Amino acid sequence: MIRKTLLFKELREMRWKLTVGMLMLFVTGVSYPFMHEWLVGYMSSSLPVELLGRLGLTPESIQALNDFTFATFGNWNAKNLQQIGTILAILLGMGLLAGEYEHDTMSFLLSSGLGRRTVFWSKAVAGMTGLAILVWIPTLAIFPASALAGQQMQHYRILGATLVTFAGLAAFFALSILLSAVIKDGLKAGLAAGGIALGLGLLGVVPDISDYLPFRQMAAMPYFLGVASFPWLTMAIFAALTTLLLVLAYRTYARDDI
Amino acid sequence: MLFHVDASSSVPIYVQIVDQVKSATASGLLKAGEQLPSVRELAVSLTVNPNTIARAYQELERDGIIYTARGRGTFIADTSQRLTLEVRLKTLEQHIERLLVEAYHLDISKAQLLDLITRKLTEGEGARE
Amino acid sequence: MMDLAIQTKQLSKHYPNVEAVQELNLQVPVGSIFGFLGPNGAGKTTTIRMLLGLTFPTRGNATVLGLNPWEQGSALRQHLGYVAENNNLYNYMRVRDILSFTKSLKATWDDGLANQMLELFDLPQKEEVGTLSRGMQRQLALILALASRPKLLLLDEPTSGLDPIKRREFLNLMLEQLVEQEQTILLSSHDLSEVERIADYVALIDHGSMLVQSPLDDLKQNVKQLIIGFSGEAPEVPKETGILQAKRAPNRWELIVDERVDAASLLPMPAVRVEERRLSLEEIFFAYAGGQAR
Q1: Model's pTM, two decimal places?
Q2: Is C197 close to B7, i.e. CB distance below 8 A?
């Protein structure tokens, strides 16, 4: 069902997105250990308490930021990987099918003797592979970067939290494919998926539901802090959602006139 | 190249080839025993469907203009090997039938028709002598 | 019974605003070169895409090489070669990359044949597809379609963009292949002269409907123009099946008829003159297209 040739073709077509995405994640994430000390020192000494208060920071939270492991988590899983990762997941998903429509190459691809099942699932796997590369290489690179910067990680729960973040990003990736299968226009599909993500993000200000929104769940903070066990249920829900969205996307594509 | 086809003509391509072989043999341009190109060769050199060439060869073979020797190719037939008188008369008969229909519609009487044929035959003999 | 490479029954495709294909009964014999003709927008491309399993029909069915194109599409497409009308390839790939890409997907790929054609068309292997001229891209698409020695070739306006010499070379190449391996070719075109030379079967469609489908030679032999002169005023032309086109002048009829019409039985009174004339394919098609009530 998955064709290697097709997998490589898709990864090759993704190479610019992968390169730029990797660059962004390295700049925002992997550079953090080198900036940690300066940032914490700057905030606790140079900024007036009044301004810190307006930013929502209390002396306690600045104290918490002193904890390098926690600060890294806050910068990575709760912020950059989540925000940039969502954008990248949508970018990867929106081009897979729509790119073939836009360049009018779908008929050539299928006439090369491929079935739609193979085309779709090879593309989906290629996209997931790209997403995995973008998530895991920078995440793993944080550890040697920390050592290089002379910082000490207290534990490795960042890896577990990243797994949950990855599962959530996969769902956004699947949403983006589905929308591009329906709309057949990569840019519009991407904007629609981005709009949904933004909407979910804005809903975070509503206190009653914010705990249940994907971004809060993706961060897996209770697990990271050690106050809860690994969120298997969240993982299962993200996986089920991803599967559902992909199957819907496949069925849309499989019935489409080309 | 002995043959040429005019694809946009109203005459079917296979008929054009049949006619060209017939007139080439009649004029002595193609001699008995001479080999014709294979169906494939001719199809490619004329850029014509091989089935069309095959049909022309079938027609010519049926009329006794050419013959096919298995494994060796297609050749111009010897006159003596050609059709029996009976078959040849039959072919001519079809042409005469058409002539009669035409004559009827044009309101030409039997006497006028016979007269015309006799005159044409005499003209033809005169030209040949 | 003739073996058919393609058989469709009542194949129809309706889009919201247009009935692109209507009740098409196509019969393409194995080993034939089938000219699928009609003006631009007649429904040729939609039909071909349905035969490939790319587009789904509104009604009707089709059997292509014994398979159902919509349920056994990938198995079918392994044995098909297709060149689309506005054929688009992956522009960023080099010529040799797209060759190896297609090769890896087609089980029956023939390197020797591919090289022979590359040489014929003189394509630069190191160039990116997007930098090639339109004509060269077309040649490349043909190579990609032909090199797997498909049992059935579906070519949508294949030689548009080729100069006359390359066009002739390309047609010859197809003919050679056809002779060697019982290949069937369906060739859509709006250019009759090209199809007239190499096709042995033709179909004409317009506005999505089949106007005529026949062996080409039969069509040329059976369809003819009759000019019938009368001594007095010409009577009304009787309504008979087989009269494709009828014009009545004060003292004569100008008819285009097919084999079902017998001039003698048609005439209500003796005519003074009956002239019979054969027609070119173009004239024949014009008669079919013009005679169709819309």
Answers
A1: 0.84
A2: yes
